[in-house]
Amino acid sequence: MVIARSVRTLLGILTMVLGTTQAFSGQNASKPTVQTKSVELTHLVSVEITVFSPEKDLVVPYCGDGEGRADSLCILPAYLEVQTSRGWKPVKLRHSDAVLGEVPLDRRRLRLIPAGQNHDFSMSFRKEEFAVERGQRLRVVVNAWPDEESMKTDKQAIHLTSPAFECP
Hints:
Elements: H1 2-25, E1 44-53, E2 58-65, E3 71-73, E4 78-84, E5 87-90, E6 109-113, E7 117-126, E8 137-144, H2 148-152, E9 158-161, E10 165-166
Parallel strand pairs: 3-7
Antiparallel strand pairs: 1-7, 2-3, 2-6, 4-5, 4-8, 8-9, 8-10
């Protein structure tokens, strides 16, 4: 019974492989084709945060529209920290030869948060890119500015830190 099921599974896989090979080898050269080069499973961690500005207006750069009403934060004006035995440290990249790209100032969008109001943001990252593990305590640091001009000159940055959360 187990052997028969294994043989059927193996035959099914061989049929799929042979069928794909035959489709590519017997395809019409004048028709467009699509080939699958690779398939991978990625683990995307998404953090939703709310920035509240009780007394003064704040400007927060963001890079895209997120799910619902949350704007996606740009990496670098916003970043992750991990709790270590020596306190909170910026999260390192998993691969030493990797480099984070920064969105140029002129491509960032700005969200004005008026005094006394709040706004939702999201930040997503792949665990494969950052040196984080399940169960580690992380937090998001968001850089905000009092106005657009101070953001452009990177003066008077206000560092806002989220509560800690456990990496899933």
